[in-house]
Amino acid sequence: MAGKPMRGAPFGRERRGTCRMDRDDIADEGPGLTRRDFVAAGGAAVAWSLLGKAGGAAAASMPAPGASAGPAPNPVSFGDIPVTLREGTNVSIALSPDGKTIAMDLQGILWLMPAEGGEARQLTGYLDDIARPDWSPDGGMIAFQSYRDGNFHIWTINSDGSGLLQRTSGLFDCREPRYAPDGRRILFASDCGGNYGIYVLDLRSGDVTVVVDTPHEDSEPVFSPDGRRVAFVSGGQLIVLDEQGAQTVVAQGAVNAPAWTPDGRGLVYRVASGTPRDMRSSRLYRSGVPITGEDEDVFPFPVSWLSADEIFYTADGRIKRRHLAGGDAAPVPFTARVTVAHAGDYPRRRRDFDSEAPRPVKGISFPVLSPDGGKIAFTALGQLWCLDVGTARPRQLTDDSYAKTYPAWSPDGKWLAYSCDRGGKLDIWLRDLASGEERQLSRSPSAMKQSSWSPDSTRIACASQDGYLYVLDVASGAMTRLLHQTVWSGRASWSKAGDVIALAAVQPYSSRYREGVNAILTCELSNGETAYHLPGPGLSLDVRNVNGPIWSPDGTAMAFTMKGTLWSMPVDPRGRPTGAPRPLNDETTDSISWSGDGGKILYLSNGSLRLLTMADGSIETLPLSFTWALAKPSGLQVVHAGRMWDGRAEEMRSDVDILIEGNRIAAVEPHRPDRGDAAWIDAGRRTVMPGLIDMHTHREMGNQFGDREPRIFLAFGVTATRGLSDNPYLAIENRESVDAGRRVGPRHFATGDALDGSRVFWDGMRPISDDGQLERELSKAEALEYDLLKCYVRLPLRLQRRVVAFGHSIGIPVTSHYLFPAVAFGADGHEHMGGTSRFGFSRTGSSLGRIYQDVLAIASGCKGFRTPTLFGLEGMLGDWPGLLDDPRLSVLFPAWEQAPLRKAAAAGPSKPVPMVAHQVEGVMSLMREGVKIVTGTDYPIVAPALSMHLNLRAMVRYGMRPVDALRSATSVSGDVLGQGIGAIEAGKLADIIVVDGDPLRVIDDAARVEQVMVNGFLHDVEGLIAPFRGKDAGAATETPQHATAGPAAQGPLRLASKSRHWWHDERWVEEVRRSCCLPT
């Protein structure tokens, strides 16, 4: 139907400059020095420009001489193990105008092959990271999008492989190029306007013009054959725009990949059905009529036309040729050859689980400088500590098993506020520093953390676990909700007058892709008005935790970390920048705090406490003599097992003794009652097996569970976890606390912030802006002795290759969401069954959850590992009738986590989920090819520990043998870690569980845990639960959805700016939190 013109000029009457080349802001703001102001004021060079404006060519196959030449030599390859690919997972193609040649994107490389099939010839290299090829009308050139420089941009290459040229550049993403019929222009989608709009690039002049920019996210444009109309996708609709600006809605729903019919009278497009976690079909349609069947796995890319009734498209891992008149599609065979490297081909560093010699404490979490500059409060080894500056030995302030985090000094120096779950869940507690007396201040139904005192010491700003900002009255405990929901924002900081609060928050570039920059968010207490500010064009703050912004005590500046180092920026009383930021050091910087007079800043650098004097810029390392030692039992323990599974064998052994000397298994022998002075553990009527290993967690991102979380893991039999991105110091603190016997919990294999590109989403992702910053982050990894490194979604391949090389040089593995070309660099494995990708689609899993021969061949060729992290399993709780009454859930799980689990269980017995079934089929195919499958959950996106058992149950439900599922969670994971766990064998660490039943026959029995041993220390389930019996974790099932909680009267909810900052919408926040790691 016809409709009103789109916002912006109709494409037939374009205005040059509509897409501003000097624009580098990503959202309109109020008064103040925004990114746009920096450019207008001459504070930075043009940040988004089109290359090639100096000259042009008469045809698309003649590149503009001003365009940027590509890298040489090209193509570049890595690895020495040959792999032949005959299928492609989410492979895309474009047919040349003469119908003779196919351009193919297979695993991020551009290939050419004969249209009838055959050997593919490589045109681009492993670092070019290309997608969505499109031919020029004369067949002389191919356009594509490339992520080579750390943003998506339009590139072209001649069809003979010469003349690689970058056509766009800058801070914004430019995607999905399609040639105009005249060959002189390229349509593309870009987020340069604050959301995705459609633009056209003139190849002769280099000018860019806006074609359409609706309030929605506009993408995948394509000219009609006569060049007089444009079809594109916008807001769940396929729309055709004509020269007069009128629009026609062609299709609605999950529609994408439009392609015009040769006569221009219709469109072919792809439609997906189902939910993100349960996609049911992916089909091609022509003007509302399906072309392909429900059983085909059609990939999300435009078709190519060979004739008026014959198309080429990709589905089921293949290139297909189909006559629209009817009949089956014919596959077009191809072979493409790549190379990979052997995973694990380097000396591995092993953690020392034997020596009891003292070791320096490196897990110094959230240190804060006292107002007088003379003391430092921090958490370490599970307790709260205070260090007098100038002395080396800290004083222990607390001594109990509960969680403690985020200490904060009152400005008058009389109190320490911190988060603790002594009362049942994380609340704000106050400690009187003179008397040592403590009291619980907040009593919210949600976990509360990140305390920050007002300048007059009468109020405390803090955040709830679900993303709201609150203000507590210190005298009464009254709590008022101040700020709308955000995604894991940072600790608040107060203005000098106490009327504005600033914190770090994510500011997305668009709603189509969730990533953005970490910006300074200010909120005025009087009216709730919010505004975002950036330190400069294209600049992002580092992680959003305790790295700033923090207001100087005199209110004239903010300090924060950026590019991994410490910076200061002048601001006005409302927090608006008044000048450019300046660097204060050139070393890794975390956890910053000012002294009360503003003269000093404390921070952590590679594990050392550093103190900066603002007056002269001098920096000193503060002395700290603080050690811990490995805790392990002494003497001989014997576990008598009625049945024992060692983590590897096909069957159980019966009536055996497991002999444990200290923290290691000494032997496994037939049962003998005469073992002398051994301490006996009787499991004669039970099954003993290795403890489970969760290989994909973000435990420090889920620290709102407090001390409940490690107990939940143990109570469900998880004795080890691997972290995939977390606050590094908190992760190391957790690791040291458990190893030292100061915290009851699973042993932890830790990393720091995942290494990401210039755009980020999660708090635990570190935006890397240049090579120097990356080197600093890698030095931190070595200094803090990370157990692994993780590269995240937008880290460019060139930098990922450097991370792999460095990680292996210090003996630790490297993983990411990407399989190829990461494994050509030597990466050890990859995460998820088609996880979050910068492309909007995965090359390791289709939207229906299927994988194909390319993934199998590459993964088996490198001999790496894969962590499936199956999602959408909560419905299976309906098959677990006793769970809701199990005290491991009813006592240990906080109310906000119980509520969705109870809702899922109430739905009754679960129905099959085809997408999960396809994923499990893919997992089993990988196993058959020799790929090491390890089980992980992605906690805290899903429930802790419980999700491990749902993963195991799902694998068995959809075809895997229980023994293979359990191996993935025990011995295979242990072998991948290489740290002596995961099996009951002589020499292994004593991490074992005692369960009621036979898990090799009934996988559900793996959850019937009665006792658990970690490092030789035995715990029973009741002992794990006991500290929280009678403490209901704020058992009100509501989370704070209103303005106040606790004893204060209800007040108004202030969301005056919400319509402008759409990413504060609770529905969007919840959706993106739950949407991690879904294929497209």
From TrEMBL:
The keyword Nuclease does not apply. Residues 916-1016 form the Amidohydrolase-related domain. Residues 1-31 are annotated as: Disordered. InterPro entries: 6-blade_b-propeller_TolB-like (IPR011042), Amidohydro-rel (IPR006680), Metal-dep_hydrolase_composite (IPR011059), Metal_Hydrolase (IPR032466), Quino_amine_DH_bsu (IPR011044), TAT_signal (IPR006311), WD40 (IPR011659). Keywords: Hydrolase. It comes from the Bacteria. One of its GO terms (molecular function) is hydrolase activity, acting on carbon-nitrogen (but not peptide) bonds. Pfam families: Amidohydro_1 (PF01979), PD40 (PF07676), Tricorn_N (PF26549). Residues 12-24 have a biased composition (Basic and acidic residues). The keyword Hydrolase applies. Belongs to the TolB family. This is Amidohydrolase. It comes from Telmatospirillum siberiense. The lineage of its organism: Bacteria, Pseudomonadati, Pseudomonadota, Alphaproteobacteria, Rhodospirillales.
